[in-house]
Amino acid sequence: MPTRFIATYDTEKKDDCLAACAAIRAAHERHGVPGTFFIVGKRLEEEGRGYRDLLGDVPDFEIASHTYSHIILRDHPFCGKTPDNATRQREIVLGKEWVEQTFQRPCVGLRPGCGFHNALRGDPWLLDTVVNAGFGYVSSLLWGPETTLPALLVPPFTYAEDGHPELWELPGHGWHENLLKAHNLTVEVKRILAWPSPMPEAIRLTPIRTPEEEFAMNRLFIDRAVEMGLPYVSLIWHPWSLARFDPAMRMLDLTFAYIKELGLEATTYQAEWERTRIALPVA
Q1: Which of 3.20.20.370, 3.30.450.20, 3.30.565.10, 3.60.110.10 is the CATH number of 4-279?
Q2: 38 forms bridges with which residues in the sheet?
Q3: Which residue has the higher pLDDT, 93 or 277?
Q4: Which of 223, 117, 256, 236 is nearest to 174 (CA)?
Q5: What is the pLDDT of residue 184?
Q6: pLDDT band at 281 (very low <50, low <70, confident <90, very high)
Q7: Is pLDDT at 239 greater than 90 in this prediction?
Q8: Which is more confidently placed, 182 or 110?
Q9: Cα(8)–Cα(271) distance, rounded to whole angstroms?
Q10: Backbone angle region of 264, left / alpha / beta, with phi > 0 → left and psi within -120 to 50 → alpha
Q11: pLDDT value at 147 more than 90
Q12: Which of 19, 207, 221, 247 lies at a 20 to 30 A Cα distance from 49?
């Protein structure tokens, strides 16, 4: 089965992300590419009409949850400590409710703020809460081993070993592009690099400088995913960071043209989840 491509956006910053999504939508329309937007619920509470008007009428756009206010759901060495369970539950439930209320459609996917190197494994309370909230998949594996970057090219898996075979993990891959550009890096880049690196060609010790350099990095992960026969590849993008670095969205144009050149099908996380459930049913 050929590798598919998922364009994905962690949509979190007030004002900046909404403005950036207009340019992102235009790039998708130029190339006819679907995409998934993980949106923070508080952004929808404050700017919901703008997001609905901009993204809600595009059939090929999936809108999923990025929690309610981007509070971290598990301890993270760079992003903070886990709050109490009441706060975590509020983040999970309200984030989903704001997506469904704003766009009047089911929300089946959750991407926790920052993501984790071990996904949601080993946290039974968190897994129970995610399942009880009605999510079908999470995309939380966004870092390499021991919270390093880049995130490895890992295929989907279920949480059967944690008692939830019905919940799928759909990992993200590669760099958090905002860190690749040093837009909000609070630690030296050497502290987040895996050593030895599984992809030494993807290691940068200095920030990228041009959209062409960013595309070249994307191409490394896309090509490797195809070589591995991975079901899909999905890079970790942020609208505010994309627009700050590349307001014309030249990188998106280059990346979308490349996946077409390779003949890869573009899809969404929800469509990939639905396909995976059918292709790999859990007994």
Answers
A1: 3.20.20.370
A2: 10, 64
A3: 93
A4: 236
A5: 61
A6: low
A7: yes
A8: 110
A9: 13
A10: beta
A11: yes
A12: 247
Half-sphere exposure of 50 (CA within 13 A, CB side): 15
* pLDDT over 90, % of the chain: 88
Residues sharing a CB contact under 8 Å with residue 14, sequence separation 6 or more, in sequence order:
43, 46, 47
Residue position matching structure tokens 């590798």: 3
Q: What angle do CA 55, 58, 59 make, to 5 degrees?
A: 135
Tell me which DSSP letter residue 74 carries: S
Task: Locate all alpha helices (DSSP H) within the chain, ordered by sequence.
Answer: 16-31, 41-55, 85-103, 124-132, 177-180, 211-228, 239-245, 250-262, 269-279
pTM here is 0.96
Residue the block writes with tokens 């090929």? 60
Question: Which of 215, 261, 266 lies closest to 237, judged by CA?
Answer: 215
How far is residue 256's CA from residue 236's CA, in Å, rounded to a whole number? 15
Cβ(111)–Cβ(139) below 8 Å: yes
Which residues make Cβ contacts (< 8 Å) with residue 215, sequence separation at least 6?
Answer: 250, 251, 254, 255, 258
**Over the stretch 206-229, which tens digit does the pLDDT of each residue have?**
899 999 999 999 999 999 999 999
What letter would DSSP give residue 158? E
CA angle 154, 160, 166 (to 5 degrees): 95
- Report, in this order, helix, strand and coil percent for the chain, each rounded to 5: 45, 20, 40
Residue 117 in contact with residue 148, Cβ under 8 Å?
yes
Place of tokens 């309370």: 125
Those residues whose C-beta lies under 8 Å from the C-beta of residue 209, and which sit 6 or more positions away, are: none
